[in-house]
């Protein structure tokens, strides 16, 4: 598979700039078209949450507040797109215009439920680029990111809080023999084939794990130069062990399967995906 079409969702919030810069960096490297996608909240979806026991005046005030905030975020998203595209000399395509070959960007906005629309539209793209939550005490993934991972059927590149100057030169692959792991490896292959180096990490948590040499050999068939690291968790969470090994190896991106166990289990008990999403400072390529 080649990556020729990238969907980058930005909500106009604080993480939007780093997310868009990350998407444009990948798009430039791969010669892909980046669609910058913003979803405005339709007030009809906000009102039912607070309608019980409220007067018509109160509901009107809620609708007005949602409209103002939605319009403000849409304006920020468009302004950011215009600034980064112009500053970076990115070929811009008007909505509905003919798509030229190679690197380019376009902007699209729709109104509705953000998590549903991003996952649905993402099915038409080769790679999605999204942000994650960074606040203390918050779940590690937004509903939009979580839904995209679980329902788009596409690999998701999770942008870091600060956009990297370059990425994909040295890619770490956290391998575990699961279907999500296979999907993540397949989704990352266009990036792995361009990488200067790859490191395959497996973690011994006290039970039998795959030999990283198997994946190193598999990548070799695709012309990817890789080394293997099999490490003991040593009292650490597996996710933390993976992040520490990836950083120690000098990787600038981490690839792994997401939510091999249920999201509810991870929310309650924790898990590798939750740990990595919460703690990673490098870009993550995830797939379910």
From TrEMBL:
Residues annotated as domain UspA: 230-287
InterPro entries to which the protein is assigned, alphabetical: Universal_stress_UspA, UspA
Gene3D superfamilies listed in its UniProt record: 3.40.50.12370
SUPFAM superfamilies registered for this protein in UniProt: Adenine nucleotide alpha hydrolases-like
Domain of life according to the entry: Bacteria
Family: Belongs to the universal stress protein A family.
Protein's recorded name: Universal stress protein
Organism encoding this protein: Ferruginivarius sediminum
């Amino acid at each position: 598979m080649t990556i020729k079409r990238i969907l980058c969702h930005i909500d106009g919030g604080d993480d939007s700039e780093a997310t868009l810069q990350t998407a444009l960096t990948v798009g430039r490297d791969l010669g892909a078209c980046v669609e910058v996608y913003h979803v405005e909240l339709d007030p009809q979806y906000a009102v039912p949450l607070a309608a019980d026991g409220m007067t018509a005046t109160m509901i009107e005030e809620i609708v007005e507040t949602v409209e103002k905030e939605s319009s403000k975020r849409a304006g920020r998203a468009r302004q950011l797109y215009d600034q980064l595209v112009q500053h970076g000399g990115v070929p811009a395509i008007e909505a509905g215009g003919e798509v030229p070959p190679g690197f380019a960007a376009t902007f699209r906005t729709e109104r509705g439920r953000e998590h549903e629309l991003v996952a649905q539209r993402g099915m038409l793209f080769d790679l999605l680029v999204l942000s994650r939550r960074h606040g203390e005490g918050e779940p590690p993934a937004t509903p939009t990111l979580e839904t995209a991972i679980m329902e788009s059927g596409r690999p998701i590149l999770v942008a870091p809080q600060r956009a990297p100057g370059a990425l994909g030169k040295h890619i770490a692959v956290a391998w575990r023999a699961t279907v999500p792991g296979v999907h993540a490896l397949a989704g990352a292959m266009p990036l792995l084939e361009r990488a200067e180096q790859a490191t395959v990490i497996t973690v011994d948590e006290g039970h039998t794990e795959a030999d990283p040499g198997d994946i190193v050999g598999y990548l070799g068939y695709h012309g990817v130069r890789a080394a293997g690291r099999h490490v003991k968790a040593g009292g650490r969470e597996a996710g933390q062990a993976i992040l520490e090994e990836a950083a120690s190896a000098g990787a600038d991106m981490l690839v792994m399967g997401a939510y091999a166990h249920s999201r509810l289990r991870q929310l309650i008990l924790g898990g590798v995906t939750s740990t990595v999403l919460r703690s990673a400072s490098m870009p993550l390529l995830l797939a379910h």
